[in-house]
Amino acid sequence: GAGLGGLALQAGTRGAYLGVFALDVVSFAVCAGVLLRLPAVAPVAAERKRPGGRPVLRDRRYVAVTLLNTVLLLRMPLLSLALPLWIAERTDAPAWLVSALFVLNTGAVMLFQVRMARGVTGLASATRAVRRSGWVMLAACAVFALSAGGSAWWAAGALVVGAVLQVVAEMGQSAGSWQLSFDLAPADRVGEYQGFFGTGVTVARTLGPLVLTALLLGWGTAGWLLLGGATLVASYAMGPVARRRGTVARPEVRPQPVLAN
Hints:
By secondary structure, this protein is an all-alpha fold. Helix content is 74%, strand content 0%. The protein contains nine helices and no strands.
């Protein structure tokens, strides 16, 4: 999809845009047809058990970890919305580069995410992964800021380097946060805790576009550095919060993060 969007941007014609929309409609129809062919599964009645323990909202440490992770998840609207606007408004890079960077990100995650997560197996390794991702994300933001004000070639080069750094930070943050979200949840309430942890994605995708467009397009280089600094602070705060909460013994959970673009 990102590749087709890049071709449409490069062509810049009404027919190209309508053609991409038409292909998108066809893809949804094909997916619906595949799902309709799946066999229906009868629901199985399960014994309802009265939950024990305190609700997740009263677990202040887990709430704090979720809030910090929400800050780190601002990378999601950064790639899908803020960076394309930055490229269009503040750089001379070609429009098709927006799609190329998205393809680069998706391809890198598909190829390297599991490998990056392989060494993250507990609280200590998870917090280290998140801290490292904060530094890499700060570097990515600084490089993205350098893409403004130069030639098209300079902008394109800076954007590609920044995108590589950003996806490295993304994979480290995903692996570490995924591990923390399981390790800090009581064994008998994983579903409830994971459901709450997942709300960070919704918040980041909902409020992130407003925050990032105001920050990056309004403040320019200072906004990029502020974003990188906020990410670094959140990544370092994750460790102390997680260690104070991480007293519940749980079996090792090997993270397998999914694509989150």
